[in-house]
Amino acid sequence: MQEMTKSDSLAPPRIVITGFMATGKTSVAQILADMLGLEFIDTDTEIEKSAGLPVAKIFERHGESYFRDMEKSLCADMKDTCGSVIATGGGTLLDTATFDLFAQTAHIVLLETTTEALYQRLQFSRKRPLLCEDGVALSGDALRERISALVKERADLYSKIKNTVNTTNRRPVEVAAQIAAMLELPSESLFVNPGAGSTDGDNSTPRGRYGVSRVDIGRGSLSKLGNYLIDLGLTGHAFLLMPETTRGLFTTQLQASLRLAGITSTLLEVEDGDARKHLDQTSDIIDRLIDSGARRDATIIPVGGGVTGDIGGFVASLYMRGVPLVHVPTTLLAQVDSSIGGKVGVNHSLAKNLIGSFYQPHLVVVDPCTLRTLPLTEVANGMAEVVKYALVGSQTLFNYLEEQTSSDSQTRLRNTHFLERCVLESARIKCQIVNEDPYEKDRRRTLNLGHTVGHALEASAGYGGLKHGQAVSIGLIAALQIAVVRGTTGKDILDRTRYLLSWCGLPIKCERFDRETFTRSLSLDKKVRNGRLHFVLPTGIGSARVVDDVSVDEILSTVGVA
Question: Where are the extended beta strands (E) located within 149-210?
Answer without folding.
Answer: 163-166, 187-192
